[in-house]
Amino acid sequence: MHKDIQNLKAIVQQLQGKIHTQEQTIEKFATQEYLEVDTISHKGRAAEPICLPHDPYLGSPITNDYYASVYGMEYQDNFGSNVYNKDVPCAVCRANHVTSKVMIPGKVKCYAGWRKEYGGILVAGLDRHDGSSSFICVDKNQDVLEAGAGNEDGYLIYPAIAKCGSLKCPPYVQDTRISCVVCTK
């Protein structure tokens, strides 16, 4: 029985090592997939970006004027790494053995008990453009699509800045970029 317990302990240690290794790795799912939505000039454009594959199964051509258009997402700031007007790749982050994921604007560290997946800058569509957009956290180490600089003015992302008034200042500061962090548990 003592030998069985020792064997089980060894197996548990091996599995914990595998879990730790897997938890240290955030996989980019289809790192060069396309991130797409409608263009900024369309008032009824989609609010949420979508990820499109490189190898789509296409339907038939449309023959009327009732459709939603799909364009690429573009950086509209250099974000410190010369990415202006370059296309944003789609990345689906997968963290093993977690049940919750949260994006926390205004933070660079996760709360106690949570694990940081990445941190960066809060972005959204320009508030003067027609149509909806979503706040997303762009990794501080941005990626771009290879040869992706079409400048189609599709879904454009800009740094989100604090506007005092209904937003309490302090702690926020007028016209200052807002950091963000993505955490899992």
Radius of gyration: 21 Å
**How large a portion of the residues is in β-strands, by DSSP E?**
25-35%
Q: Could you say how many structural domains there are in total?
A: 1
Q: What is the CA-CA span between the terminal residues?
A: 36 Å
Which regions contain 5 or more consecutive residues with pLDDT less than 50?
A: 17-38
What is the number of helices?
1
The SSE string, one letter per element, is HEEEEEEEEE
GO cellular component, one term: extracellular space
Coiled coil: 5-32
InterPro entries: Ca-dependent_lectin
Keywords: Coiled coil
Describe the structure.
InterPro entries: Ca-dependent_lectin (IPR051077). Residues 5-32 form a coiled coil. Keywords: Coiled coil. The chain is an alpha+beta fold and 185 residues long. The protein has one domain (25-55, 67-184). Helix content is 12%, strand content 30%. Strands 1, 2, 3, 4, 5, 6, 7, 8 and 9 form a 9-stranded mixed beta sheet that branches. The protein starts with a helix and ends with a strand.
What can be said about this structure in brief?
With 185 residues, the chain is α+β, with helices and mostly antiparallel strands. Helix content is 12%, strand content 30%.
Question: Which key features would you list for this structure?
Answer:
185 residues; alpha+beta; nine-stranded mixed beta sheet; 1 helix; 30% strand; Ca-dependent_lectin; coiled coil
